[in-house]
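User: Some background: our group keeps a shared notebook of sequences we're curious about, and every so often someone picks one and asks for a predicted structure to add to the entry. Today it's my turn. The entry only has the sequence so far, pasted here. Could you supply the structure so I can complete it?
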Amino acid sequence: MPESDGAKKADSRTSGLPRTARLSRSAIAGMAVAQAGLAQLGHKAQSLLRDEAAQAQARSAHEAALGRILFNALNQLRGTALKASQLLSMELGLFPDAVRQELARAHYQVTPLNRALVIKVLRQELGQDPHTLFAQFEPHAFAAASLGQVHAATLDNGDAVAIKLQYPGMAASIRSDLALLRNLLQAVGLSSAALPRADILDCVMDDVACKLAEELDYLHEAASLQWFGQHLSLPGLVIPQPVMHRTTARVLTMQRLAGVHLNEWLLTQPSQPQRDQMGQRLFDTFMHCVFVLHRVQADPHPGNYVFMPDGQLGLLDFGCTRTLNADFCQALATVWSALLQPRVDTARVQRAYLQLGLIAPTLSAHDFSTQLLPALAALQAWQGLPFSVPEYDFAQLPPYPVADTGQRRQAVQFLQSVPPDLPYFDRAYLGLTQLLKTLAARVRTSNPWIHA
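Assistant: Of course. Here's the predicted structure to add to the notebook entry:
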């Protein structure tokens, strides 16, 4: 929906900051709920006049409409609400695909802070103007996202650095934004049986709140950069280290890496061996993080990787990481290994599902094998496809499978809970596969954890 001239002027004045008036933010959420209700009424009325095939198509269109309603509301709220939209869009299986695609539109460049606000933030956090703090400082951001923006600078010793500045008011808006978002999702969920149950949604939203609080603490991100710099020592990887005397909870100064992001690198027309090398590096990093370090970078995005002139790969943005439980990683490997066998050992898979907490101990072996597994079969096959051969060509990876409403209902009926580590693993794995598909990389996927 195009913005009015008044809305554009307001956005210009606030320079990308979130709307803070409680009444206006509540009104945005209320309007979205009303729109979802009207959409549901129209969908029900029209469904009475359709055959079964037309009804399935109409359900997909209705879910896409709900996704647009959600995204339009979150886009107006901006700030932490918009960041939550990004995180929710990466949750495999939580929302219908049409809803997830709409929420994914939150991965975009927002209006950056103006120069006066940049100087104000640096004064508040570091006590001095940028040109006193740095030998050189570029007042125009070279990257901007939902929570902050990044500036180029040079230290007095000549080192190139990147300075991430958090937009004012972000931390203060978490509680109110997520309360609005939780209510909005629950209300819109009443308009679609395909959205998750309220108890599952509550668990996911609680986790999103914790991760947003971490991501807004740049001292936490600095510590994560240091940890991965010490422990993730695979060949060809570079992790920029923080400059602690120029870092606070709202300002993160780190080494600036020379290089380009994925799309720019692809414009240089790299050879297939170069694509394969970078793809292998990404794949090996993911597997090492999951099964050796038990800690993942959980906000995958093409902008978080720098393809460097010397052939190395730079890893950025460690604001959202997750330490995985070792038992979770073992159970996950067990499930994939069992599902890749010519004859699936369903009893072994069920034991792993119990270990993960996905199902209740009371679920019978018959219901597990004849009802739950068939409902999850398409997703499991898609996830395991790269591991079905020793080397996989990710250019051939099919689209993420879209589960129909019946399959989702069948799965939700038997799934007891969402293991706390699962959304982070799913998000990281989905991001990896999409990067490798974009690279059209051929990757050796045989590994000692799944193919043991």
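Suggested note for the entry: The chain has three domains: 5-108+170-215, 114-166+217-256, 257-452. The chain has 17 helices and twelve strands.
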